[in-house]
Amino acid sequence: MSSLWTRVEPLLARVQKPARYIGCEDGVTTPRHDKLPGGGAVAWLLAYPDTYEIGLPNQGLQILYEILNERDDAVAERTYAPWLDLTEQLRSNGVPLFSVDTHRPASDFDILAFNLSSELVYTNVLEMIDLAGIPLHTTERGPDDLLVIVGGHAAFNPEPLADFIDAAVLGEGEEVVSDITAVVRDWKRDGRTSRDGLLRELSKIPGVYVPSMYEVVYDGDRIVEVRPRFADVPATVDKRTVADLGEWPYPRQQLVPLTEVVHDRLSVEVFRGCTRGCRFCQAGMITRPVRERPAEQVRTMIRDGLRRTGYDEVSLTSLSTADFSDIEPVVKGILADAQLPGGCADTLTISLPSLRVDAFTVGLAGEVNGAGGGRRSGLTFAPEAGSWRLRQVINKLILEEDLYGAVDSAFQQGWTRMKLYFLTGLPTETDDDTLGIAELAKNCVAIGKRYTNRASVTVSLGGYVPKPHTPFQWFGQNTRAELQRKIDLVRTATRKVPGVQLKWHDPAASIAEGLASRGDRRIGRVIERVWRDGGVFQEWGEHFSLDRWERAMALEGLSLDWYVYRHRDEHEILPWDHLTAGLHKDFLWGDWQDALAGSGIEDCRWTPCYDCGVCTGFGIEHVVASPIAPAGGSQGTGQDLARGGEVPVTLLPARRQLVDSPNQSVSPAAAASAESGVTV
Amino acid sequence: MKLRIRTTKLGKVRFTSHRDLARMWERAVRRIGMPVATSEGFTPRPRISFGLALPTGAESVAEYIDIDLREPLSDDRIVGLPAELTAALPTGIDVLIVAERDQRAGSLQEVVTSCTWQLWSPQLGSGHHHDACRLLEATTLELDRERKGKRSTDEVRPMILDLRVDLTPAGDRLIAELATVGRGLRPSELARLAYPDIDPLDVRVLRTHQWTDHDGNRRDVLPCELPQPTVVDASPVEVLA
Q1: Alpha helices in A13-76, H assignment, sequence order
Q2: Where are the strands (E) in B21-71, listed by range?
Q3: Which of A424, B14, B140, B146 is buried deepest, with most CB atoms within 10 A?
């Protein structure tokens, strides 16, 4: 079919932000649908189930877009969730979901592939499947209907979407998209015979999970067994992992949007994976091991990327960028390159989005901000919990002195405000721990006042949502009322403190997120009801309402108590137990028990392996340029890193006293992690 | 050195906003390494200024941008600049002409007194356009409109300087010259008066001229040969005059 542009165009005069739907980004490839004779090329419609502004910068989607278009037998275009105004226009004018590249209807494609970076977008997935014009339920689709695939972090528990998706991809997509392309290409060539046959073939690709090939057996509420329907369907699906990031210098041509998006800058991924071991952090658990990009490649990608795009801001992305072995030489190299003709030294901004909490890191941030001519980027630290005891439970081993050292260093270097990220509702959290958040914030402002009267600290407080494939997957989430009570504790404690601002996430949204995160297949009907009830864009506060979710649960005879608030026991079969990120379940259970005992675990990239299961199971290993922890770094515990093993709870007591001299406040061995990539 | 540049905004890119356009230009001048002067202050910005904002969704063959350079460009570079900039800008934004701007020249907002627009729609025929021209016969025309959240009823007849119908390769279109001084009159507002029976959102507009006044004679800010009838995106409604 040809482009829908002439039908879309009049609708765009009637919507907000029409530039969301026009494509035309710099860096787009002209999609060639005629690569193979007779339409034999496999056409992928890569979908992001949230607005263009949020979806366009997504690096995962851009990487796959390039890799697929480079293939001789595949073509890829992109689509994003149309906002409510356009959705209404599309429905009333009978126009289907379209690609933004060439405005082709979704039905021109073979595969509709969603990137799921969070759970609250699930209702948008249903909306987009429906707008694409195919049956909502996978069982009702025929050989000519789109194949619906999901990937991304949330796809590690795709069970709540099992009714609606044909397949889920676990782990990194660089290689598996080619495997999927080959299977679909052959199936098309052989005359698109049976859809079930295709799904069965797909289920044999490592990393590809086809829910319809598995039967879930229940006994009452509990899952008794998840059984493959056929002997050649694997009992357990492993994630896919790229062994060497250096072989994948993508995106080579980052897309430059014509309209404003959330991360409107060049992004270069410096490493993937994180083994800091923060127990609440799903990203850190499911992306192991650590694989650094070669420093020289990072520098080249940044130099070429800045010139090609015309951006004067670059973000070095990862789950904890200060942990990159060659961070200092890379930063110096970027600054040197910017001085060359055609460089943008006078306006360059380098952002290091996920900083560790220590003075060394802040020194680095200061260097980056002082040397570039551009604006000073914001500083965010993520201590995550209010007390040292609780930080040991969650394995975010930051001493108060690390935080105060970092904050002191930041104010000293001219920052006047910073942001602190905390979670509440963590396992074992007491009111003392919660109130510790206010205490830390107060002390940070007090440090700042020594340098400037304008010193202020913004505390961002999120309700903790337990995630699959983490040591906290067994933990019963705090109730909405309990989360609200804890938020109110901090509100009261900070209300009259000058210089401390508090922001918090709606605890109701955390409950819906918790439900979708650890739900099983029965939650699919709940998601469908919420969607039919108009509950789209659930990540957008103004469109979220927990009432819809509670109503849908009640109509399905399901309870939030059972799905969200209940602690699981060791032997319960979890809905995602047949899917694995490589972490042994007994490792996770052991780490959960260690957490309850308040004992930490070290970062295995610099210490002996404790065999979580990932490297040994998949025959891969860390790719790290430096065998020693970065300057200032032992996660703040002061332990001997060469020793390995467990960190005793009593190793260092929590220090509540402020240390007056900034030099004393940070020992050379004191550092900690701050994966601000964590969803709070 | 100060430059004044005339460009088009045609095709899909018409849906970008005035703010979007500013970012496109900042990236384009960095991509080609143009020595743009920067503003003073805590966050220096490149000294690029834009003329009268084009409404989002409208097309144009007469957009103007002023750029101040921190060092002069060679004559050769200036000759090649339209092609160089066009390659660095999105499809649909073509640089038509680059001229050196007189140090004393006023800003675009100050000097432009009126604009010429083409209006058309698949729902409008020649008759509608000829009927629209009869607005000129009115001595007074009142329009209810909202600007910045404030509703008012304004006398807009003086803002309509001329109306006529031209046959373009894409068929008949209304050619309207509208004043920009004071509160002016937007082409979408004219469409409400000119075509009361159709939704103004269905009326397409194209700016063809921005005029300056020289002792009572109007002149293009930068006159130039317009591109030959251009077909954008192969859509018949987008064939240009």
Answers
A1: 52-55, 59-70
A2: 48-50, 59-68
A3: A424
Tell me the domains of chain A and their CATH numbers: 5-238 (3.40.50.280), 265-522+558-665 (3.80.30.20)
Name the pLDDT band for A358 (thresholds 50, 70, 90). Answer: confident
CA distance A113 to A47: 6
Mean pLDDT of B164-184: 92
On the 0-12 / 13-18 / 19+ scale of CB atoms within 10 A, A413 is middle
Instruction: Kindly provide the ipTM of the predicted complex, given to two decimals.
Output: 0.92
* Chain A residues touching B237 at Cβ < 8 A: 6
Q: Is the sign of the CA dihedral B42, B47, B51, B57 positive or negative?
A: negative
The answer to whether residue A19 neighbours chain B at the CB level (below 8 Å) is yes
Encode pLDDT of B190-233 as tens digits.
999 999 999 999 999 999 999 998 888 999 999 887 765 443 43
What the block records as the tokens of A316 is 């070095």
Domain pair B2-105 / B111-238, same fold: yes
Interface of A with B in 541-600 (CB under 8 A): none
Residue that has been written with the tokens 């690569």 in this structure: A35
Tell me which residue in A5, A312, A346 faces B233 most closely, judged by beta carbons. Answer: A5
The ranges assigned to domains in chain B are: 2-105, 111-238
Compute the average pLDDT of residues B114-134: 96
Sheet holding A266-269, edge to edge: A266-269, A313-317, A349-351
Q: Please determine, looking at this structure, whether the domain spanning B2-105 carries the CATH number 3.20.20.150.
A: no
